[in-house]
Design a protein that fits this description.
This protein is an alpha/beta fold and 164 residues long. It contains six helices and eight strands, in the order H-H-H-E-E-H-E-E-H-H-E-E-E-E.
């Protein structure tokens, strides 16, 4: 009985939606720490979010205004401001984060169980790194990080392709 409860708890860790603390737990700075940057972000937030490809904007602990996108393209780079009211704007590509950490992501479930790592979206549009595995390894559940470079991470079992 105890083993079943433990396995269900571990399985829930792999599939549960993000908690409120995970959603805001990037490297986001408290509003009272950087009032100048937060004021600039509030002034330009709607304009930044209207740029095609932008999924999230926030002020980081390093006092940069961070714009999170799936992939940086030349068109997106040309449209993105380099600073707002004297505050530096830093664009973060989630696909580049996946490429930088691909070896680590493959080790989460072990080389044999790893299927692929990709960028997907939560229903609210927030980007998430998803590692799909051929078979889950419940023994490693406590070693799986909740995020990579502040981007939420989820491990899911890869489904068989549909056949005709």
């Amino acid at each position: 009985m105890l083993t079943s409860i433990a396995l269900l708890t571990i399985a829930a860790a792999f599939t549960s939606p993000p908690t409120a603390s995970e959603v805001v737990a990037y490297d986001e700075a408290p509003a009272n720490l950087d009032p100048l940057e937060h004021q600039a972000l509030q002034r330009y937030r709607a304009e930044l979010m209207r740029i095609h490809g932008v999924s999230l904007v926030y002020v980081a602990n390093d006092r940069n205004i961070v714009v999170r996108v799936r992939k940086i393209t030349p068109a997106l780079d040309a449209e993105m401001p380099k600073e707002l009211d004297g505050c530096r704007v830093k664009v973060v590509s989630v696909e580049d984060v996946v490429k930088r950490h691909l070896h680590e992501l493959a080790q989460i479930a072990g080389e044999q169980a790893f299927f692929k790592a990709d960028v997907e979206s939560f229903p609210d549009g927030q980007l998430v790194i998803v590692v799909r595995v051929r078979r889950p390894s419940w023994q490693q559940a406590e070693d799986v990080p909740t995020n990579i470079e502040g981007i939420p991470l989820r491990v899911l079992v890869a489904q068989e392709p549909l056949t005709n």
